[in-house]
Amino acid sequence: MSNLPNCPECKSEYTYEDRGLFICPECGHEWSADASAVTDAEPVVRDANGNVLTDGDTVSVIKDLKVKGSSSALKIGTKVKNIRLVEGDHNIDCKIDGFGAMKLKSEFVKKI
């Protein structure tokens, strides 16, 4: 078994080392051994204004958002308390009064 890191771009396990660089044969991404140590850290999630978000923060919605499967929309200024950060495209997991459990993108919220 190889102890080389997975590709930070496509998460492929078929990476190889060449002259001090790690290379992914699937997506062609190249990175240095120093950069691989940095990618193992937690990703930083930022709001629309560039503030760093953490678990338990309170945020507000900065634009009206259509809610899939509902006839109403999430209005601008809606407060969302006690967020939880998750990986993926919709990186905020939360519960909103009147809507229930929901996932939001961090680009549509601002930290209060």
TrEMBL record:
<dbReference type="InterPro" id="IPR004624">
    <property type="entry name" value="YjdM"/>
</dbReference>
<dbReference type="Pfam" id="PF03831">
    <property type="entry name" value="YjdM"/>
</dbReference>
<feature type="domain" description="Protein YjdM C-terminal">
    <location>
        <begin position="45"/>
        <end position="111"/>
    </location>
</feature>
<dbReference type="Pfam" id="PF08274">
    <property type="entry name" value="Zn_Ribbon_YjdM"/>
</dbReference>
<comment type="similarity">
    <text>Belongs to the YjdM family.</text>
</comment>
<protein>
    <recommendedName>
        <fullName>Protein YjdM</fullName>
    </recommendedName>
</protein>
<dbReference type="InterPro" id="IPR013987">
    <property type="entry name" value="YjdM_N"/>
</dbReference>
<feature type="domain" description="Protein YjdM N-terminal">
    <location>
        <begin position="4"/>
        <end position="32"/>
    </location>
</feature>
<dbReference type="InterPro" id="IPR013988">
    <property type="entry name" value="YjdM_C"/>
</dbReference>
